[in-house]
Amino acid sequence: MSSAVSTSVRQPARAATAAFAGTTIEWYDFFIYSTASALVFPQLFFPNSDPNVSLLISLATRLSGDSFPIWGWRIPFLFSLVLLVVGMAIRLGVNESPEFTAASESKKLARFPIAEAFRQTAWPILFTMLAFTIGTAGFYFTNTFLIAYTTRTLDLDRAVILDCLAMVAVVQFLGQLAAAKIAERIGDSRFLLVASALAMLAPYPMFLLVQLKTTTGIVAGVSIATLCASGFYAVIAGYASKVFPVEVRYSSISASYQLSGAIFGGFTPMIGVALSAGYPGQWFPLAILYSILAGVSFLGVSLLAMAGFATKTKTDGVAVVNAAPAYAAVAQ
Known about the structure:
Blueprint: H1 2-39, H2 41-45, H3 51-60, H4 68-72, H5 74-91, H6 98-105, H7 113-131, H8 133-153, H9 158-186, H10 188-201, H11 203-210, H12 215-241, H13 249-278, H14 284-306, E1 311-312, E2 319-320, H15 323-331
Antiparallel strand pairs: 1-2
Helix pairs in contact: 1-5, 1-8, 3-13, 7-13, 7-14, 8-9, 8-12, 8-13, 8-14, 9-10, 9-12, 10-12, 10-14, 11-12, 13-14
C-alpha cells in the first residue's frame, strides 16, 4: 500500500518533469531550425536567388546538404537526439492519468480517435486552433523573422541578435513560471484574455526599442512581446486539456495545436519577409501583423469562454469544463 501511495504521489512530479523535457526539446528544435533558416540556409542553399526570395524559400523548406555554414550548423540538430532519448526515458516512467485509465478499462476510447475528434468536437478544435495562434506564431515572429529583420534591415551583426535572444530566452523561462502561478490565482480564461490583449499592444514598444540597435533596447523590446506570448503559451496547453472529453482529448488538442502551428506559425515569418520587402525600412506593418496574430488568439479564447469552457468551481477557482452545456451551446 505504501509503495502504491508513494508512486501515486511521485506521478505529478514525473509528469511535470516529462512535460518540461518534452517542451524543452520542442523549443530547442524550433529555436535552432528558425535560427538556421534566417542566417544559414538562404546563403547555403539559395546563393544565386534574390535575397528575399532565398529567405522565403528557406523558411518554407527543411533541407540537408559541410566551418559553421557548411557542417557546423548540423551539430545542434544532432544534439537534439540526446535530448530526445532523455525525454523518452522520463516519459516511460509516467503512468497514464486516472481519467484516461478509467476510460480505457471501460472501453470508452475511440477506435479512430482523430476522426471521432472532428466528429464530436469540430467547433472546439477550431476555437482552440485560433487560441493557440500567438503562442506559436509569436515564437516564429520573434525567433525567426526578427533575426532576419535585424540582420538584413537594421544591418546588425548576427552575433548581437543571437546574444540578445539568448538573454530573452532566460526572461521567457522565468516569465512562463510566473504566468502559470498568476493563472492559478485569477483563472485560465481570464489570464489568457489579458495576455492576448497585452500581446496586441506589445509589438509597438518592441519595434521602437529594437530600432535603437542597442543590446539593452533589443532585449527589453523583445522581452515585452515574449513575456506576453510565452506567458500565454505556458497556460493555453493546460486550458486546452480541459476543453475536450478524455476519449478524444489528445487527438483534439494535437489537431488544434498542429493546425495552428502550420497555418499561423508557419506562414508568419514568410508574411513578415514579404511585408519587409514591400515596405522597406518600415516596422509599422510588421507590428500590425503581430497585433492581428494576438487578436486571433483573443478571439479563440473568447469563443471558448462564451461556449462555456471557462466555468469555475467555487472550491479552488480552477477552470473546469462543464462539457454538456458547452457542446450544446456550440451546437446551437
